[in-house]
Amino acid sequence: MNIGTNGFDTYNAGYAQEMLERWLRNPGSVDPSWARLFGGPSAEFIPSGVEGLGAGVEVPRYAVEEAPAMAAALPVAPARREIRALLAAAELVDAYRLNGHLAAQVDPLGSPPPGHPMLDPAYHGITSDELETVAASLLDRDVPGETLTDVLEWLKATYSGSIGYEYEHLEDPVRRDWLREQIETGAHKQPLGAEEKRKLLRRLSEVEGFEQFLHRAYLGQKRFSVEGTDMLVPMLELAIERAAAGGAREVVLGMAHRGRLNVLVHVLGVPYGRILAEFEGQAHGHAGTGDVKYHLGAEGTYTTAAGQRVSVVLAPNPSHLEFVNPVVEGITRARQSVRRATSLEREEHAVVPILIHGDAALSAQGVVAETLNLAELAGYRTGGTLHLIVNNQIGFTTDPREARSTGYASDLAKGFDIPIFHVNADDPEACLAVARLALAYRGQFHGDVVIDLIGYRRFGHNEGDEPAYTQPVLYQHIQAQPSVRARWAEALLTKGVVSREHVDTEWQRVYQRLVEAQDAVRRAGDAPAKNGNGDPAAAVAEPVVETAVPAEKLLAYDRELHSWPDGFTVHPKLVRALGRRSKLLPEGGPIDWGHAESLALAALLADGTAIRLTGQDTARGTFSQRHLVLHDASTGRKYIPLGNLREAAAPLEVHNSPLSEMGVLGFEYGYSIAVPDALVLWEAQFGDFVNAAQVMVDQFISAGGAKWAQHSRLVLLLPHGYEGQGPEHSSARLERFLQLAAEDNLRVANCSTPAQYFHLLRRQALSRELRPLVVLTPKSLLRHPRAASRLEELANGSFRPVLDDAAARDRTGEIRRLVLCTGKVYYDLLAGLEAAGDSAGALAIARVEQLYPFPQEELTALVQRYGALDELVWVQEEPQNMGAWRFVEPRLRAIAGERVGVGYIGRPERASPAEGYASRHEREQTRIVRAACTLPVRGHRAGADEKR
After folding, report:
1. What are the strands of the beta sheet with 871-879, ordered from one edge?
2. C-alpha–C-alpha distance, residues 717 and 162, integer Å
3. Cβ(651)–Cβ(690) under 8 Å?
4. pLDDT-derived band of residue 540, with 50, 70 and 90 as boundaries?
5. In angstroms, rounded to a whole number, what is the distance separating the alpha carbons of residues 460 and 469?
6. Which of 78, 184, 236, 482 could make a disulfide contact with 67, Cβ separation 3.0–4.6 Å?
7. Stretch among 43-47, 620-624, 728-732 having the lowest mean pLDDT
8. What's the half-sphere exposure (Cβ side, CA atoms, 13 Å) at 552?
9. What is the pLDDT of residues 334-375, one digit of tens each?
10. Count of H-run helices and E-run strands, the chain
């Protein structure tokens, strides 16, 4: 370690203490740099005669002879007490850097901070005399003052004022040192000029005036007031200003309810009248069912002080408060991406994400951790998110000590190497200072940063709530607390920046604008609603989309999909597998599932459709079926044949995701709504894993169009099929998607052939009708010899929602039972039918490949073709209370009419999706197939008897 003649690296104060003690025992035992520090340049040592150093300790001759002259300049050996005081002072400086936030005055309600023993000089052995006598200059710090007393006051002002800084936990010393310099030089604390102070007063008047007007005009209506954290709005505006100065053209916001209406009007520029119309019951939205006013999103333009126009997007959000977080990150990533032909470049500075959290929700909801984990991953990073906690110091009615096991709501962020700044929401200049620092950090390091805006909640969780029921003492303090606007106005009055008349005029101006906006809304009156919640709309027919691809093009793509650069060594096993596959298409051989998928994606890239495919082990495929990304067996280098397609006119992204469903699916949903022309696909490792993302499915994917006019062509690939793998890896819970299906909000398919999958993917990408697609993808069918297609099926035709029984076409008049099924069970039934021989001649099996929108017309025509039909039987592998049965039953009865019976064959109702024992699974599969392939006695209908 190399140190100067009087400089201490305070990170190593303990080590320095040890070096001093070694030097005092034997000066020759320490590095020369330490010897120079403790004793000067002399190399000649003599026995010590200095009192207190101990017998036998040698010190430099000059240290004894010249000590009086050097004592004022250097911490020489005779000044042992001063050296110890200096080391203790260095420890005190480090203690404030590490723990000073625990003594910061960040609670506007005045509760005392917890403090920390290491912030007391006495903890380090520093006496009051030493505070006054030890020179501050010996610390080699650019600190004001002459003595340690001055240093201590500077430390308190810097680290324990209205801002508490947490950055010492950062692993990167460059980031840590940069933050230390910014904080200790006060670079972010830029005093406001007189006009800036008046401007801030104006904005705080608008923020509070808006809330107070709503409180009086619409007493008791929910609005989730921002009062108590009013500085949120000016901080957001400053963040946008700073982002724009750094080259941002867009800012994407995600936030829950609190303060949302204020942000809409004052940051995004939504007119007062539009918000007031919501309170008046006159709002007219899009053609869906809509949402409550404090869930809605918007897009506006913010003009900076320099005249730069920045697009500001506020994403809509449900009451699951933190679940918009990954959606915002996905939107940001998509809008940062510049797509030029086959290249995809990202401009992280151009689009900045800001997430506004609630303190109770942030510390409790796991999607927060999932989102933070995405921040530095190659397939998901967005160049740094500003996380701003609107900290009410309380949940709905729950105190922090009942809601989290950590001191701060923000502590989770420490585990992701993120700096955290706590700030008193009633100190406007401190709030603006941390916003400057946060955006400077984001610009410098492209990393996440957290601001913990510690305030309070003026009213209850909502305005119809009485908070004093559960927090009586807290709300006594809050009722007595002046608003930040009032406090700021008084500060400006005291300094002579404004007059009382100016303050009153600002308030009256705000209120008058709101009164006039309300009058205009009421004069406009009610307009006829554009839509209602009456009868469900009829299903919209799928638009006709050309999905076939000429055979010669498919052959050309196929050659490139099975080639790689010279010198690239593919794993020997994979070389053999790819070699076999490469021969199939030219020779007219069977095409399996993964092969058809690659060809579909290749054709889409050639058509100019950008593709993003992510998921858990997706690059290879959970079942080793895909292998889009090849790895050099010698070097590990990657090569993606599909990404190097010569005819590609759009870029391809393929990323393995973390083992996350909620966060990653939310991210991909956000990406898909931001780039609606791209095909975004997310694959679960097993279909049931989507359970862990149910909020995203329920609140965003299935309902986003109806609630927020938010449309997506996102594809969910969910492996599904009963192969005896137990309850957790059999079912993708098809029933849940069908329960959510209405108003043409989804497409739900369970294909049985690779060609069907090929055309389905292409239709999803090329259709003008944007709807998410849920595909129950196979496991055993990935390599099933009968679940294969031929080149002509890809080069001709299209996706067919219903597949008839080709073997029964010549004997439609003989068919008494028509079995309907979907997906993999078809091949089990086919084998059972063949085993039954002649006894199954009066039976046909048809496949429903698309379950929603339900193919009513196609199935009606199918049933009518079988004139002698006695019964229509739905067969499924899933239990009766799961799978598609309860969705299709009323629809099949409507098709069958009075003449044809409708029955069910499958597992009985169960709590678990599948058997956990292979033997039981086999018995159930055998029973289902036998029952389906055994015709009942003429006139007897099987359905109800086959539930066991």
Report:
1. 802-803, 843-848, 817-821, 871-879, 901-907
2. 50
3. no
4. low
5. 10
6. 78
7. 43-47
8. 0
9. 999 998 778 889 999 999 999 999 999 999 989 999 999 999
10. 33, 26
According to the 3-state scheme, what is the secondary structure of 22-76?
HHHHCHHHCCHHHHHHHHCCCCCEEECCCCCCCCCCEEEHHHHHCHHHHCCCCCC
CA angle 503, 509, 511 (to 5 degrees): 105
Residue 526: the pLDDT is: 54
Query: At residue 608, what is the residue type?
Result: G
The span from the CA of 495 to the CA of 506, in Å, is 18
| CA 911 to each of CA 730, 908, 914: distance values in angstroms, whole numbers, following the listed order | 14, 10, 9
* Percentage of the chain lying above the pLDDT 90 cut: 75
Residue 590 or residue 10, greater confidence: 590
The 8 Å CB, 24+ separation contacts for 535-539 are 536/742, 536/743, 537/743, 537/744, 539/744, 539/853, 539/854, 539/856
Unique residue bearing structure tokens 């400006």 = 492
Type of residue numbered 807: A
DSSP state of 591: B
- Calculate ∠ Cα 673-658-314, nearest 5°: 30
The pLDDT assigned to 47 comes to: 41
Q: Copy the structure tokens of residue 529.
A: 């609603």
**DSSP at 637:** -
Model confidence at 39, pLDDT cuts 50, 70, 90, reads low
Per-residue pLDDT tens over the stretch 280-304: 888 666 667 788 777 888 999 999 9
SS (H, E, C) 102-170: HHCCCCCCCCCCCCCHHHCHHHHCCCHHHHHHCEHHHHCCCCCCCEHHHHHHHHHHHHCCCEEEECCCC
The burial of 544, by beta-carbon neighbours within 10 Å (0-12 exposed, 13-18 middle, 19 or more buried), is given as exposed
CA distances from 568 to 438, 474, 573, 633, 642 (A): 45, 68, 15, 8, 16
The structure tokens listed for 201 are: 């007063």
709 token code pair: 């006019």
Phi/psi region, residue 917 (left: phi>0; alpha: psi -120 to 50; beta: rest), is beta
Give yes or no for residue 588 having a pLDDT over 70.
yes
The pLDDT, as a whole number, for residue 17 is 65
Which whole number is the average pLDDT over 726-730? 92
Whole-number pLDDT of residue 841: 82
Whole-number mean pLDDT of the chain?
89
The DSSP bridge pattern shows strands 298-303 and 309-314 to be antiparallel
Mean pLDDT computed over 883-891: 97
For residues 86-115, b (16+ Cβ closer than 10 Å) or e, as one string? bbbbbbbbbbbbbbbbbbbbbbbbeeebee
Pull the structure tokens for residue 339. Answer: 């797509």
| 3-state SS, residue 375 | coil
Q: Scanning the structure block, which residue is given the tokens 């799928």?
A: 542
**Phi and psi dihedrals of 638, rounded to 5?**
-100, 150
Smallest CA-to-CA distance from 48 within 65, 31, 36 is with 65
pLDDT attached to residue 14: 60
Structure token digits, residue 55:
């017998």
* Coil vs helix vs strand at 884: coil
Q: Is the peptide bond preceding residue 853 cis, with omega within 30 degrees of 0?
A: yes
Residues sharing a CB contact under 8 Å with residue 773, sequence separation 6 or more, in sequence order: 713, 714, 715, 716, 746, 747, 748, 749, 760, 764
The token duo for 180 is 């230390």
Q: Do β-strands 715-719 and 679-683 pair in parallel, antiparallel, or remain unpaired?
A: parallel
Give CA angle at 253 (252, 257), nearest 5°: 160
The percentage of the chain sitting over the pLDDT mark of 70, rounded to a whole number, equals 89
Q: What is the DSSP string of 912-929?
A: SSS-SSHHHHHHHHHHHH
Q: How many other CB atoms are found less than 10 A from the CB of residue 785?
A: 8
